Amino acid sequence: MSKIKENKKQIWLEKFDCFAIKGKDSKRFLNGITTGNVVDLKNKVLKTCWLSPNGVLKSLLEINCLENQLELIVLAGNTCEIKKYFDDIIFPLDDVSLSETFSINRVQEIDHMNSWRINQPIFFKNENKEYDNYKKNTHNINNNDLKLWKINQAIPSLDKEINGKNNPLELGLADLIDFNKGCYLGQETISKIRNVSSLKQEIRVWTSEDSGFNLNSDNKNIYNNLKKEKPVGYITSIYKLGSRSIKGLAMIKRKYLDTRNSLFTDNGCPISIDKSIGSTFL
């Protein structure tokens, strides 16, 4: 690798669905739906969550505050479902309108030591000269390394960690919730969990060095011993590192988070669990 390439910043470059929200009521509208404080947002990017009424994470979002509109970037979630819900709850008197969905190039510097939420992203709507110049001075991380980095950061994915069961506190996204703002969708459940410290499980990064690991097993449960006497969690994501090493994400019951012994998969492969770089828990 050349010295020039070594000195380039390593970046996460990916296309995401995006749509604009316009009108004088846009901030108030989004503030009542998402977990972040949108009302006080000024010329910056806010990472936030869209929840179900019972507090389950449905989508991981970014809101880019521009001078005359808000742009909503869908990092993980069903864009059509989000837009339909937004459309359905816009009242006739609301000064709010939604644009058509478009793709946006999202660029962010890779940080292997700190949470992905520290670095602010840059957005390019078109692959223009400015975009090309930016790419020349950076080094785009390859897809395999990006997948591994996302696992180490515990960035949730649709139909994996965002599966209709997990809430954002369990997924280590507590810092994306403003507990001091007014009402938002799912607030009652989230406040209850926070106030009584009733998290039942937390997301963890797991690793296995066993070549017998079954990648195709339908049973993703994790057990406390080889006898499979008690399920203590379940695997949500799997990534093969090499000929033997396997890594992924799992939801683990809090009672077993501090165990120093290995946990086991359905076919008896030992796994170790660690906290992710990017998670923040209560």
Task: Please describe what this structure looks like.
The protein has six helices and 14 strands. The radius of gyration is 20 Å and the shape is globular. The chain is an alpha+beta fold and 282 residues long. A hairpin with a 4-residue loop joins strand 3 (57-65) and strand 4. It folds into two domains: 3-153, Gyrase A, domain 2, CATH 3.30.1360.120; 200-274, Beta Barrel (Elongation Factor Tu (Ef-tu), domain 3). The strands form two sheets. Strands 1, 2, 3, 4, 5, 6, 7 and 8 form an eight-stranded mixed beta sheet that branches. A six-stranded antiparallel beta sheet has the order 10-11-12-9-14-13, covered by helices on one side.
Radius of gyration: 20 Å
**Total beta strand runs:** 14
Note the overall shape.
globular
Per DSSP, the total helix count is 6
Count structural domains.
2
- Rounded mean pLDDT score: 91
The unreliable regions are: 1-5
If classified by CATH, what would the architecture of the largest domain be? 2-Layer Sandwich
- Could you name the CATH topology of the largest domain? Gyrase A, domain 2
Main sheet record: 8 strands, mixed
N-to-C SSE series?
HEHEEEHEEEHEHHEEEEEE
CATH top-level class of the largest domain: Alpha Beta
CATH homology superfamily name of the largest domain = Probable tRNA modification gtpase trme, domain 1
Q: What is the helix content?
A: 10-25%
| Alpha-carbon distance between the two ends | 42 Å
Q: Which secondary-structure class do the elements indicate?
A: alpha+beta
